[in-house]
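Continuing from the previous page of notes. For each protein in this section, the sequence appears first, followed by its C-alpha cells. Read the first protein now.
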Amino acid sequence: MKTIVASYNITPNQPTPKDPLWLSDSDQIGVLGHVSILYIYRSAKEHNNNTVERMKNSLSKLLSYYYPVAGRLRLSKSGRMELDCNAKGVTLLEAETTNTFVDYGDDFSPSEFTDELIPKLDDTQQPIEEIPLLLVQLTRFHSGGDCEGLAIGVLLSHPLTDATGIIDFMNRWAKLSRGEELDPNEIPFLDRTLLKFPDILLEKPREVNTREISKLDTSTLQHIPTSKLLDQWKKPVVPQTPEDDGIDKPKKRSGAMLKLTSSQVERLKNKAMANNHQSSKQGSRPNYSRFEVVAAHIWRCASKALGDDLTQVRFSVNFRNRMNPPLPHNYFGNAVANVATPEGDIISNPLGFAAHKIREASHAVTDEFVKSQLNVSRLGQVQLDNIRAFFMRQGHRVNIPYALNHNVLFLTSFTNMPVYESDFGWGKPVHFGLASRSPADRAAILPSPDGDGVIVALFFQTALMQLFKNYFYEDMYLSLL
C-alpha cells in the first residue's frame, strides 16, 4: 500500500525566458498525453533525510536549463500546440509503500503493482493548460522497518521530448544531484525551428545548411486563451472507438521481462546471417545489428503466437543523425519518425527475412523522408482534431501509418541509450523500464543492467503469453527456421 508523504512544486532556481516555444510537427503527432518510465534502486544505506532535499534543489537547478519543462501546453490560434514557458513548475511527490521487492516479482514488469510507483494524473479534472508537464514520484520500499530501496517513477508529457530526451534529462538531474556541474555539451538545445521547413528547403533538402536554418522565421503565432478557441469550434469531436478503427475489442494483457544473454543475441545474429535470403542477391552475408535481430525474433514469436502472418511491427527511428546537417546531439524534443514493417511471410521464412524487413523500415528514414513527412502533415486535419479533442479532455488518438485491420506489435528500443547512468548519489539503478500497462501488444528492448545482453520488456495478450515465451527461447535453437 502506497502513502503520499509530501508533494512539492519545483520551479527553476533563476529567472527563465518567457517567450512561447514553437513545437514541431514531430512533437504533435502520436501520443499527446504523458508517458512513464521507472527506475529502481536497491541500495539503502545512502538514503537519508537529505535525499529529497537534494533532489528538490538539483531539479530546480536543472529546470533553469530545461525551462520549457516547467511550463504548460497551450493552443495557438491555428489549433497547433505550443509550450507556454511560464515557469509554473513541476511536481515532485514523496511516497512510501509497505510493499517489498518480492511483491513486484523482482522484475518490475508493468502491472497493477507498478502502477502505484508512478504519479497519478487525471487530466479530465483540470484544463490541459494547468497540468504539469513533469511529475516525479520518489517511493521508498520498507522491509522490517528499514528502507529496502526506492523507486523513481517519471511521468512526462510526450510533446516535450522523445525517449532520448527523457534519458538525457534524468541523467543530468542525477549528475547535479551528486554535486557535479553540467558540461557545456550537456546543456539542452531547445530551438525546435530546426524542424520547421519552408517549401524552398523541402525542394532541395540536401542543400540545407546551418547558416540557412539560422535565418528561418522563429516567430510564433499569436496566442489566445484555449477556452475561447474551444468555444469557437462548434463541431464536436468524437474519439474513435475500436469499431471505428477496425481494431479488435480489447484483450486482457500481462507483462513479462525476458532476458537474452550476449551469447544468445550473438546466436540470433549468426542465425539471421546464415539463412538470410538476401545473401545470394548481395553476394555476401549482411551483418545485422543487435536491434535488428532481436526485433525480428520478437516479431516472429509474436506472429507465431498469434497465428497471424500479417502481424506488423511499428517502431520509432531517431533521426537526429540522419538529417543533413544532423541535429545537435543535445537536441531536446521529439526527433523520431514512426515506421511500420512491410508485409511478408514472417512465419514460414527464416529469421534473416524478418531482420531484413526491420532493416528496410529503419533505413527508409532519411533526410528527405523526414522533411517530406513533416511537410505532409503540417499538421493534417486529423491530427488537429486529435489535438482539439485532447484539450477538450475527450481523449486522443494515435496516428497509425499502416492498415488498421492488421495485428500490430509496437516496439521501442533503448539499447543504445545510457539508461543506467542515473546515479543520484546512491548507486546506479538495478532496473529501468516502462511502468504503464499497454492496451496493445508492446515490447521494449532494454540493455541488461549487468551488461550481459538485453532485456525484452513484453506486454502481450495473457492467453498467448506462455506460447510466446516458448517460441522466444526455443526458436533460437532451431536449425532451419
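Done with the first. The second protein uses the same format. Note its length before scrolling.
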Amino acid sequence: MSISLDTDNWTESCYTSTLDRLNWINASLNCQRVYNGRLMMLKTPSTATRLVIDNPGTLYWIGLSSTQTPGVFRWEDGMPLKNDSLWLYGAPAPGSQKQCVYVKIQDDRERYSNEDCSTELPSICEFEGGRNGSVVCNTLPVVPNATLTNVTSDPLQGQLRPGTRATYACDYGYYFSKEVAEWTIECKSCGWWSSIPPCTAVDCLTPPEVPFAAASFESTTFGAVVAYTCNVGYRLLPPNSSDDTRLMQCDAFGSWTNSSEIVCVVHCEDPPTLLRSTVYWNSTMVGAEALYTCDTGFVFNGRNGERRYMLCDDSGNWTADTDFYCEHCGAPPRLAHATVMNGSTTYLEAAAYSCEEGYRFGGTADPQHVVTFICDGQGEWIGANISCEGGA
C-alpha cells in the first residue's frame, strides 16, 4: 500500500509498505535503491496506521535504530527519538542488544519495539516525490472491461511522469458508476496512479413479471438472458411450434428487451380422441375449433350430419353443444312377420331375414327364401324394399 502526505507545489512525502521480508540493513538499502529514499521516519502521527491498516498485526522495519550509539535511538536523518510514549510496554529493555526498531499497530495506535537487526521483516520506505524529480509512474493500469482512450504524457522523453493523465472508457454495457462511462487518472508525484473504480456491468435488476409464466435466469447484468415459460394450462401468444419459451435480454441501458411482447394465455390441451373417429385442428388457443369425422362404417349418434365440432373455451376445456360419438349401423331394421339372423352390426356385416311360417317374401314362391341386408359405410342397412306376405 502507498500514500502521500504534505502536498506543496508538487513536492510530497511519499510512503510505501512492502511485505518482502529483509533484515534491517537490507531493508534500508532497498529503500535507497528502489525509491532513492530511506526507511520511514514516523514523524507524522498515524502515518503507519494508514499504511498498514490491512495488516494490523504485522511488524514493519522503520528508520529508527541505536546502531550509531548503543542505547540511543535515532532516526535515519540523525535526529533522536523524542516521543517515548510510543514504545510497547517493556521496550526497549535496558541494556538490550536489539538495536533496530519495528512498528506495529496495537489498539489502533502505532507502537515501537526493538529487535535484532538480522531479523527479516517487512518494511516501510519513505521518499520525496516531485513533478520535476526522477519519479515516474509504472505501466498504465489494465482496467477490466475498459479501453484506454487517451494519454497526455509529460513532454520530457514521453515518460509517465507525475502529471501524466490517462483516460479510460468502459466497454459497451459497462459503467464506472451510474451513467459515468469515462474516467481519468493521474500519475501522482510519488510515482503511483490515482485510483480508478472498476467498470461494472449495467444491472437491469429483477426481470419483469409476466402473468401466468415462470422466469429462469442466472444474472441481471448486461447481456444476461431470462427465459419465460408459461404455467401449466397456458401458452405463449402468438404460439410458436418450435419453441415453448420467450427470451428477454438485459441491454446496455439497463432495460429488459421485449418486456411487453410476452403474453401467456389460457389454452387447451390437444383435443380429446373419440373411438372410431378422426379429429382435425390447427390451434389450441381459446376460441379454436376441433373438427371430428367418423371413420368409414360409423356415423354420429342421432345420424344428423357428417361433422361435429368442439370449441376451446376460456377455461381451457374442449366443449360441445351436445355429447356425440360415432356408432355403427345399430340393430337391423324390423320387418313384419320376419325373423332376422345376424351376429354383428358393423361395417359390411350382413343381416339375413326369413319369413315366418305361412309367409313368404313378396314376389317369391319359395317359403325358405332368405333376404340379406348389408351395413354400409354410412352406417345404414342397405337391402331390397320387401315384405313378408301371406298368412292364414
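What the second structure shows: Helices lie at 24-35, 47-51. The mean pLDDT is 83. We return to this in next week's lecture.
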